[in-house]
Amino acid sequence: MLYVLSFQYAFLVTSAVLFAGGIINFFGLVPSPKDVGLPEPDDGDDDDDSASSGDEDDTGVTARTPLVQSDTDSPVTFTQTRPQAISFFQAVCLPGVIPYSLSYACLKLVNYSFFFWLPFYLHSQYGWKETVADEISIYYDVGGIIGGMIGGYLSDRMKKRAPTVVTMLLLALPSLWGYSASPNNKTINAVLMAVAGFFIGGPANLISSAISADLGRQDLIKGNSEALSTVTGIVDGTGSVGASVGQILVPLLHKQLHLDWHWVFYFFMLMTLMTVVCILPMLVREVRSMKCFLNYQLRRQAAALVQDTHRTDRQHSLNS
């Protein structure tokens, strides 16, 4: 009885935390600055100048109007309307949505297979206790968290997402092979697991968050923030389809086909490689863009150097 209640209490705690977070977001999160009478960050300099000068907008709100008013304050009526959301077909046809959606389906299959099957794998492969297997499997999440932070920082510095994601995914292939050959040692297994989580969970976090946000802010739909939710839903929903398929294929490979666990890891490596293949068109486009920008910078530096040389020669001729 106590064993059953322990699981019920575990679900109760997580449910309570989710419920509290939903309440806080519902009452405290402002979806858009326009909902409280403030201009959007990309509205331009004219809006900033009018806001800084204290001019009122159509709703009678200035930059100094408090967000929360007391009962004695005069009520403020907002008449601004939210932009119309784009259709599902328009969102799918945006550049990069289909490649990243398919890539996330393959990658989420691998990522969620680790989430769900890793404790069982440790228990059946090495004979470790279930509690020990659960504790060691945490290191995969730790590696994914660190990989997401470092990958996001590098992609922000490069201002390109695909090169960072593809590089991490290519490094995920040897990390998966290395983890499949891990010895019966908890420390070595945890380290190899964290490395695999770094190169798999990191790109998965980037595609589901930063890349989805970038796809929803393209120039074709600039000014329509409602498209961000549609694009994010398409990418994450396609990834969930891949994750659900993975939960069917993993037991099919291991139990019904009686294949060794190494074949399951070979399947993970194949799905990771398919993720890279789906992103290749975006990688080629971004690499070309980086080359064009680099050539432009080199031409500017060469032109500046020529101008400095001519200016120096002219000064020497005048002095002589």
Features of this protein?
320 residues; mainly alpha; 74% helix
Number of helices: 10
Overall mean pLDDT: 81
Major beta sheet, specifics? Answer: none
What share of the residues lie within helices? Answer: over 70%
Quaternary structure classification: single chain
Tell me the series of helices and strands, N- to C-terminal.
Answer: HHHHHHHHHH
Count of DSSP strands: 0
Strand content: under 5%
Global shape:
globular
Could you list the spans in which at least 5 consecutive residues all have pLDDT below 50?
45-54
Derived from helix and strand composition plus strand pairing, the structural class reads mainly alpha
Radius of gyration: 27 Å
Distance between the termini: 102 Å
Task: Characterise the protein shown here.
With 320 residues, this protein is mainly α. Helix content is 74%, strand content 0%. It contains 10 helices and no strands. It has helices at residues 2-28, 45-52, 88-92, 97-126, 130-136, 138-158, 162-180, 186-215, 227-256, 261-319. The longest helix has 59 residues, at 261-319.
Describe how the helices and strands are arranged.
Layout: H1 2-28, H2 45-52, H3 88-92, H4 97-126, H5 130-136, H6 138-158, H7 162-180, H8 186-215, H9 227-256, H10 261-319
Helix pairs in contact: 4-5, 4-8, 4-9, 4-10, 6-7, 6-8, 7-8, 7-10, 8-9
Structure summary:
This protein has 320 residues and is mostly helical.
